[in-house]
Amino acid sequence: MVVVGTAKHAGKTTAFNALRAVARRRGVAIAVTSMGRDGEPFDALDTEPKPRVRLAAGTLVALPAGLVPRSPALALLDRGDESALGTMMFARAVSVTTCEIGGPPTTRAMRATIDRLRSLGEGPVLVDGAIDRIAPLAGGDDAIVLATGAASGATVDRVAGAAAEVVARLRIPGRNPAVERARMVRITGALDARGAEALLAGSHDVTVVVEDPTRVAVRGALFAQLQASLDLRCERPLHVVACTTCPVGRGAALPARALVEAVARATGLPAFDVVADLTAPRE
Predict the structure, then answer these.
(1) Are 35 and 105 in contact (CB under 8 A)?
(2) pTM of the model
(3) Which of 104, 130, 146, 149 is 20 to 30 A away from residue 136, measured at CA?
(4) For the residues 247-261, what does the mean pLDDT come to?
(5) Boundaries of domain holding 176
């Protein structure tokens, strides 16, 4: 399960930590890693405080050698690919410890890291993700949780609308010959604005197939027009299963219940505020 955010400070790591806490309460052994670098005390770009990652004893973790804490809290099990902070190390926490986590730089290496964690343990792998690096998840059985909040907009409606657009883009359906149109156009590489406009200028009785949802580089009204006019599908779909909401952003505070309910309505997914303990079912 991978948690990604619609914007910086959208509550991604807070949601990640909440999932770990639920697993611990239920006695589920988990493994953790990150697609970037997470768990540091302060953000490297804006120096804002960040949630720490505190590992319970027994937790499997993948992290670069440069982030392995100088303590006996982690028992090293294996080595993996290289990253900017050194060789990826696979370890198990033998006692409670707080550390930073990170992952390798390439899609192939990230997929290999997740698969290795799954082979080392019996439980799920939780990943503190990045929305621009989720291509390794396409076509698999991985689940995606989208974190959104006041960092994505100044009003409840704007936040909900931004979440709905991201979910719609990530949930481009897989191929289904039973409902596809007579003519098919397969896109090699990315579908950008120029390609989208060319498709819209032609016949709309067509199924457009991309490799996976991350290959669609079209946003906003143009993406909505694509979805409305064409049968847009992908070879390797992604699985977005829920949203989390954060009503507090820099200089903004939105009503927590209204926000979680609006995001559930807009996305059609269950939504959760893991801090205020609010839940809104899908509609």
Answers:
(1) no
(2) 0.91
(3) 149
(4) 91
(5) 172-234
